[in-house]
Amino acid sequence: MSDAIADAKRALRAELRERRHAMSPAARAAAAEGLHAQLNALVAARSVTTMACFLSTTTEPDTHAFVTDAAARGIRVLLPVTRADGLLDWAVATPDGEIAEGLFGLPEPVGELLGPIAVNDVDVLVIPAAAVSPDGTRLGWGRGYYDKTIGSMEGCPPVYAVVFDSEIIDDIPRDVHDQPVTGIVTPTQTLTLAPTGR
């Protein structure tokens, strides 16, 4: 990655992080409710029976209620567990599943680990992002876990990045290893983007 791209990403992440920290509790609650509805509509529209999702941190759009609800309705939801080698293990969500602090302080499920290839069988991936552009360029938080996961999948299913509405940004710095997404989910809308050729 060139220094210019790395610096631009760092600056944008810092700005987005600050914006997220400044959100009011009322705005967070409204966003959580909206995101839950959008994700329910997405899995219904795509007849999803198995999916990958993530457990949000306190500043991300809240996915916890959706994950609990989806698992209770019989959707097989795989949740990521970070590994020191840069890969993701996966565990199956349960409605009353225990959550612990994983690497980097992220909320992660406690339970049997299925290994990195378990995600190859999902109908859709729902992943975190700092921002996404309308052409599918995703800005993550800089550790590369999801770029590695998406880049290594044969026949990758649709990938939807979750962001707040204000985080759909036209101009996101992009490097060669950055994997595009096929859709964006916000608290008010779900966008399926034009194919990128991946």
Topology:
Blueprint: H1 3-21, H2 25-45, E1 50-52, H3 64-72, E2 76-82, E3 88-92, E4 99-101, E5 107-109, E6 124-128, E7 131-132, E8 138-139, H4 145-152, E9 159-162, E10 183-185, E11 190-192
Parallel strand pairs: 1-2, 1-6, 6-9, 9-10
Antiparallel strand pairs: 2-3, 4-5, 7-8, 10-11
Assign the CATH topology.
Rossmann fold
Number of DSSP E strands: 11
Which structural class best describes the helix and strand composition? alpha/beta
The CATH superfamily turns out to be NagB/RpiA/CoA transferase-like
What is the count of helical runs? 4
How many independent structural domains? Answer: 1
Strand order of the largest sheet: 3-2-1-6-9-10-11
C-alpha end-to-end distance: 20 Å
Average pLDDT taken over every residue: 91
Over the alpha carbons, how many angstroms does the gyration radius reach?
Answer: 16 Å
Q: What kind of sheet is the major sheet? A: 7 strands, mixed
What is the helix content?
25-40%
Shape: globular
Stretches where pLDDT is under 50 for at least 5 consecutive residues are none
CATH architecture label = 3-Layer(aba) Sandwich
In CATH's first tier, which class applies?
A: Alpha Beta
Portion of residues in beta strands equals 15-25%
Order of helices and strands: HHEHEEEEEEEHEEE
Organism: Microbacterium aurantiacum
Pfam family, one: 5-FTHF_cyc-lig
InterPro entries: FTHF_cligase, FTHF_cligase-like_sf, NagB/RpiA_transferase-like
Binding site for ATP: 9-13, 138-146
